[in-house]
Specification:
By secondary structure, this protein is an alpha/beta fold. It contains 6 helices and 5 strands. Helix content is 47%, strand content 15%. Strand 1, helix 1 and strand 2 form a beta-alpha-beta unit. The longest helix has 18 residues. Bound molecules: D-ribose.
């Protein structure tokens, strides 16, 4: 298991009830939490925290991220708008590690209103213990994803 992985952890009010437990799990696994808020159950906007986590990763201040909202959906949609971020909502253990192993997913998104705390803990462990395999077919597919991203940024899909 890799230790010393820096995990940017962010959530909105919907994800906040899970945040402290997830932070403890990350630390117990020998990893480092980079806290990106929110810090209470007051209503906030999930894109702000997706952006904070994404920017933290892109700035090299974290290696991966975990985002929590009510369903996991809104915050993953927002995170995936940031070039360089590959976020997935994973509510099953297989996807939580396979998304890293095959797709180089760098942000795990969880819905605190959908899954129980113990399932969330297992998902986080599966995510942080997984590594991209660098197998040829996965690198080839990842490169195609990155090409789509580059083309979009270059305005190739604009009408
Ligand atoms: C907030 O009420 C809720 O909409 C948000 O946490 C998330 O579920 C959006 O996808």
């Amino acid at each position: 298991m890799t230790v010393g992985l820096r995990i940017a952890l962010g959530c909105d009010h919907g994800g906040f009830p899970l945040k402290q437990r997830i932070a403890s799990v990350i630390q117990s696994a020998g990893q480092i939490v980079v806290d990106c808020g929110t810090d209470s159950s007051c209503s906030v906007d999930y894109p702000d925290f997706a952006l904070k986590v994404g920017q933290t990763i892109l700035a090299g201040e974290a290696d991966r991220g975990i985002l929590l909202c009510g369903s996991g959906v809104g915050i993953s949609v927002a995170a995936n708008k940031i070039p360089g971020i590959r976020a997935g909502v994973c509510h099953d253990i297989y996807s939580a590690h396979q998304g890293v192993e095959h797709d180089d997913m760098n942000v795990l998104c969880l819905g605190a209103r959908i899954i129980g705390e113990e399932v969330a803990v297992e998902l986080v462990r599966a995510f942080i213990n997984a590594q991209f395999t660098h197998e040829e077919r996965h690198v080839r597919r990842l490169n195609k994803v990155l090409e789509i991203e580059r083309d979009a940024l270059a305005g190739k899909f604009a009408k």
